[in-house]
Model the fold of this input.
Amino acid sequence: MTDLPSIPSIDGPRLWTSIMDLARIGATQGGGVSRLALTDLDKEARCTFIKWAREAGCETRVDAIGNIFARRRGRSPDRPAILMGSHIDTQPGGGKFDGNYGVLAGLEIMRSLRDNNIETDADIEVVVWTNEEGSRFVPLMMGSGVFSGVCSLSDALSARDSEGVSVGEELTRIGFAGDGHVPHAVDSYFEAHIEQGPVLERTERTIGVVVGALGQRWFDCTVTGFESHAGPTPMTHRRDALQAASILIQRVVELAKSFAPNARGTVGQVAVHPNSRNVIPGRVHFSVDLRAEDEETLDSMASSLCETIETIKQNQSILIDLVEVSRVPAMRFDADCVALVDRSAREAGYDPLEIVSGAGHDAINLAKVAPSAMIFIPCEGGVSHNEIEHAEPDHVTAGANVLMRCICHRAGIVGVANPSH
Ligand code: HGY
Ligand code: MN
Ligand code: MN
Done:
């Protein structure tokens, strides 16, 4: 690690202002942001980011899945670039910081390097990854998945939302169907993100050094019974899809609790048909999100859920279909990059905490093609995927300063930027 006394600090108030300004695009009554992937609001936020990145002296381009790359040239363009970034698509009831913080912290680094006339040796790039949340289109972490080969471009473009609209159609409609996947060498990737859990706040730490992430398995489950009248139909003559589904939904939670403390089980979406108060439901569709720190636990949870399904099918004349729709293996980040985050945090005067991410992040996909690591900052009450999501300005600044150090150490500082840059 080179001794780089000239690493500049970022401009915290400017970063905070950019986070608040971008949060206006899709702002909700409850103080959050609702900006689903590839909607007009996502388009507006994408155009805003590109404008800001160009003002910061970056060259921008868009690839075939809509990922936006904003590059700042270094002195040695033949060296692989150092990447940073995150996502700006949000949950339907999302917050101001999830994803947006990591993108804007990267942009702030570009601005601060420009302000201080600093030239890096390697190129550096901040990336906006398409559809990280997976809320509108599955799989989640789609843009970084295509970039890293986890998901094929054709599968991604053909993914459809609940209205039947495809990713490809939406990218074309909003003008972000880019010029193909231009492969470029990546030296390493660093992502700053709010923790989205309670650990840093509870342990009163400002910086989390993310050593790895839980594995995830997403399923769609369809339970089919028989619609009939809620009054005349005796309890012994029913094929109640919702009653069967409720057993499975309870089982998802029980399984996660049986693998405490790090397993997770969530049913976030439920659709009941025909959804009428005096009709016995004939069909129920719901989502399943299982997470755990290793694949063996995930295998156990999934097979136990399947056993419960078989028991219900034997005891009741109910059809049940469970389909896996997304899988993210449990993983560890690159030891050298993790160590650089730790050293950079200590250099900046913090006492960082090693932590495993419960959430998925684009860095998990980038880790498949380049050494990667993440920097966490606390969020209030550990709350995220909720409109009240909040982070403190000092923590926002701290995480960006640690990111700045990681990038400068990795890219190398070679002096004052050529005024023509
Ligand atoms: O679901 C996740 O882990 C991420 O927030 N998309
Ligand atoms: Mn996120
Ligand atoms: Mn999220």
